[in-house]
Design goal:
6-stranded mixed β-sheet; two-stranded antiparallel ribbon; 12 strands; elongated
Length: 601
């Protein structure tokens, strides 16, 4: 039976069956620490790390030489458990393993006597295995426990209790800087310190804890050596000796140093407070989060950015130091970018709003600038932003949020509805409307009040023109109606048939009454005269015709305005030309009559 198999069996009995633990729970902070398992200095399970539990058996080459064993134990990272020399545990394990091997090798034989003997041996070996576990437990009750060359006073008793006490000393010895950390840490504490304002009140100097100073020193060291330092690397650094800090403790210290303006955190861009919380509480992101020492800025530089914040956004910065002042500015710029994007999105209806699109893009870029740019390069962008805010952005916002937009919409709707009438209206009164709607800055130069006044006057004139157009149109329709009623064919008709003929007249009158524009009233009477009156005459003739003429072709009526006069003249300038035109008109009318058609006047 090989020694390695015996050692592995001892490892399982001691660590799995008796001690039943693969991690050390440190009572002071509730954190778990992994540990490597050794027997007689040989690594059996785990990896060479910060904490080791080394089981020393009587087969160790230096067993019995307390001075040598204790000197080898110096360093504080190993708990050495020296087993008693009596009742040699390894011999018992070898015997049990040999018997187990013999049973396995001879099982399956057809010899019933042999099988019966093997069954007895197997039962005895099972009992022996239990006895070995009991013996191991007894030896662990008595084992000498040593940390950093000093024998621990943990008394005799339950092995789990003894080793638990010893583990506490081992952790304290392996991680002497663990005492810098006080309290419990988790995901909630990371978020809490980032959001905490108490540390920043009145800009008072804040005393850093020992642990926070250690983190800051490590960041400074990496900066001096031009090394990239990630949040993940810091966590690994302080998990190891001589610290032993939990990952949440380290991340909380990073978060607070960020909040105090001592560190800056980046991925591709500088992270905001919300992004810092998200990044530090997501283990998959830690490797991509760079940690750098925050540059120190003088008070005058920070105050200059605060003043610009006030001037640009008309609200006081909530920042109290360089970090929080820059973050407040970036947040305000992000909100401004969103506002400007929403304004630019309305350019389909208001084309002049497209002017803010470049500023929306600039605001979005500014919201991603780091502290150094905002504070050191302020003079390179301050004036252009203040000019844009005064000349473009604020006027546009006032336009959209005030009465100017209402008036503009009314003018645009008025032009859309009555634009066809503008040619008949005074040009000097139409011009303010045209200027407003064609301007790329309709909110400036008094264009809106001028257009509003002009629109009011035009509405008055259009009202007067509409009334006159309606009166004229209704008079013409009434005259035409009177002529229809005076015809012999109309008077022959029964009342119901007369009403059929006059239905088109009533409809024309109703349309004229409902007309909202002068031109529409005149167009309606023109359509009635040229299209509907001839149809009325045709209808009237058909209704008045004798019953025995039902098979005859229907009478066609042509409007006088529709006659095709074959005359080369473009105008009439004398009596001779008048006679020429009348002859041509007479010939055209006679041609219609020759076809049996009638002509409406």
């Amino acid at each position: 039976m090989s020694d390695s198999e015996v050692i592995k069996a001892l490892q399982r009995i001691v660590f799995d069956d008796v001690l039943q633990s693969n991690k050390i729970r440190f009572a002071d902070n509730g954190n778990d620490y992994s540990f490597a398992q050794k027997i007689d200095d040989g690594l059996i399970k785990g990896k060479e790390g910060d904490v080791v539990v080394n089981l020393v058996t009587p087969e160790h080459p230096n067993y019995g030489s307390e001075a040598i064993l204790h000197s080898r134990n110096m360093g504080g990272t190993e708990l050495m458990a020296v087993l008693p020399g009596k009742e040699r545990l390894l011999d018992q394990i070898r015997s049990q393993l040999k018997t187990d091997l013999y049973i396995r090798q001879n099982s399956g034989s057809e010899d019933e006597t042999l099988n019966a003997i093997l069954a007895i041996r197997a039962k005895q070996n099972g009992s022996r295995r239990q006895e070995i576990t009991r013996l191991a437990e007894e030896q662990l009750r008595l084992a000498v426990l040593v940390v950093n060359g000093h024998t621990l006073s943990v008394g005799e008793g339950d092995p789990k209790t003894r080793f638990s006490k010893a583990y506490q000393e081992l952790i304290r010895s392996a991680f002497p800087k663990l005492k810098m950390v006080h309290g419990a840490f988790n995901e909630t504490t990371v978020a809490a310190v980032v959001r905490d304002q108490d540390d920043l009140l009145d800009g008072l100097a804040v005393q850093l804890s020992e642990a926070e100073q250690e983190v800051l020193v490590e960041v400074e060291r990496s900066k001096n050596q031009a090394e990239r330092l990630s949040a993940e690397a810091l966590v690994r650094k302080f998990e190891g000796r001589p610290y032993g800090w939990s990952n949440w403790a380290t991340l909380t210290f990073i978060a607070r140093l960020y909040r105090l303006g001592k560190l800056e955190l980046r991925e591709k861009e500088l992270l905001s407070s919300v992004e810092v919380i998200e990044a530090l509480t997501n283990s998959r992101k830690l490797g991509g989060v760079s940690v750098r020492k925050q540059e120190v800025y003088d008070t005058s530089t920070v105050n200059a950015l605060k003043r610009f914040h006030q001037e640009l956004f008309n609200t006081q910065s909530i920042g109290t130091d360089a970090r929080s002042t820059c973050e407040a500015f970036r947040m305000a710029m992000a909100e401004e970018a969103q506002d400007l994007r929403e304004i630019a999105a309305q350019s389909a209806n208001y084309p002049f709003l497209a002017a803010v699109k470049p500023w929306a893009e600039q605001a979005e870029a500014m919201a991603k600038k780091d502290d150094g740019y905002l504070l050191n390069q302020l003079n390179t962008f301050k004036d252009s932003w203040l000019d844009a805010e005064e000349d473009l952005i604020t006027p546009l916002k006032q336009f959209l949020n005030g009465n100017q937009k209402t008036v503009y919409d009314e003018v645009r709707a008025f032009e859309l509805r009555y634009g066809d009438e503008f040619a008949d209206l005074p040009a000097e009164q139409v011009r303010p409307l045209r200027m407003l709607l064609e301007s790329d800055k309709p909110y400036a130069g008094g264009l809106i009040p001028q257009a509003n006044s002009a629109m009011a006057e035009l509405q008055k004139q259009l009202g007067e023109r509409l009334a006159a157009a309606k009166a004229k149109a209704l008079q013409e329709i009434s005259e035409q109606e009177a002529r229809l009623k005076a015809t012999a064919d109309f008077q022959k008709l029964e009342t119901s048939k007369q009403e059929q003929v006059l239905a088109a007249t009533a409809a024309a009158k109703a349309d004229v009454e409902a007309a909202s524009q002068p031109g529409r009233a005149l167009l309606r009477v023109s359509r009635y005269r040229n299209d509907e009156v001839p149809k009325q005459l045709q209808r009237m003739a058909a209704l008045a015709a004798p019953a025995d003429t039902s098979t005859a072709a229907p009478i066609k009526v042509v409007a006088a305005s529709a006659l095709k006069v074959n005359c080369p003249l473009s105008q009439i300038t004398n009596n001779q030309e008048l006679q020429q035109w009348l002859e041509a008109l007479r010939a055209s009318a006679q041609a219609e009559l020759d076809q049996g058609h009638r002509i409406s006047l």
